[in-house]
Amino acid sequence: MKSTLEAMNTTIRGVAEESRLKGQIRSTLVRKSQNLIHLLGVLLAILGNLVMSISLNIQKYSHVQLAHQEHPRPYFKSALWWVGAALMAVGEMGNFAAYGFAPITLIAPLGCMSVTGSAIISVMFLKENLRASDLLGMTLAFAGTYLLVNFAPDRNQSISARTVQYYFVGWQFLIYVILEILIFCTLLYFHKRKGMKHMVILLTLVALLASLTVISVKAVSGMITFSVTEKMQLTYPIFYIMFIIMIASCVFQVKFLSQATKLYDTTMVVPVNHLFFTTSAITAGIIFYQEFHGAAFLTVFIYIFGCFLSFLGVFLVTRNREKEHLPQSYIDFGNIPGKQMLDKIQPDSNGLSYGTLPDGSDSTKSQSGEKKEV
């Protein structure tokens, strides 16, 4: 009897150990498949941003070519410009698909790859100068990207229509939307009624709309992915609600961003917009999809530090880039009788005058001095 009980206990322990091992193997396989899915999203985002960098430089090159023609055509009649536009669409599709495989907090900060990639391509193909700040900025951006990829939340959740509906009516998101609407309406009032067109106001409006954009893009892309892999989700009304929010927020976002680029220098708009957009997108991912739920403090700290490095890298790459490559106009004075030969005088970019003489003397003063001597 005793030996029978021992045998049964041994069997039970063996079965428990076997089930424990199977559970560990199952969890390991799930974690590996989850990491592969996230890696696919990261690769799609990086490739999409790099393709957009190529498209921007192609369009820039087409504008340069058209400007040097004797009778320049409209840019939309250039085949090269349309190639760039097509590549831009491909890059945006890559970013859109990436949100279906990885969290917002992982995909959104990877926008720095578009800025650094554009800088590298412009140096290689458009023969722009490579500055020390560019190298430092690229290094910081790549280091920040490495930290983001390794310490972003690894929470895997299938985005079904029911999941989106659950988050959509959650109290966290409702409070967030109410605050966002109040801030948006206040800024819009000062912008429209008071005529305030400060860059921070315009880009804050863009960032507030961007938070809705990334939430809806993640929902639409996730439901499409869920429909392909598991069960059809496109028959739910929430899919079309999110699709309308995605299109509307994108349209108004582009409107305010274009106003900012018209009023302010691109070297100022790009880093500030990247900072505001990424911060808004991360906040939306944390509140709506609860992507940092259960994350350790050290993981969150390193993730934030990675974001800081990428922001700093984008700032260094874009800083004074456009000003440095503006064509310098000079006026040749030639030989003036009775005067020392002057080579070229640099016009004053901040005023209507042609600047000063090379020795720093004022021409008016010199003329008055000559009259006194006479």
Automatic annotation (TrEMBL):
Pfam families on file: Mg_trans_NIPA
Keywords from the named record: Membrane, Transmembrane, Transmembrane helix
Cellular component GO terms held in the UniProt record: membrane
Keyword ATP-binding tagged: no
Region (Disordered): 344-374
Cell location: Membrane
Bilayer topology annotation: Multi-pass membrane protein
GO molecular function terms noted in the UniProt entry: magnesium ion transmembrane transporter activity
Transmembrane segments: 36-58, 79-101, 107-126, 135-153, 173-190, 202-226, 238-257, 269-289, 295-317
Family classification: Belongs to the NIPA family.
Name this protein carries in UniProt: NIPA-like protein 2 isoform X2
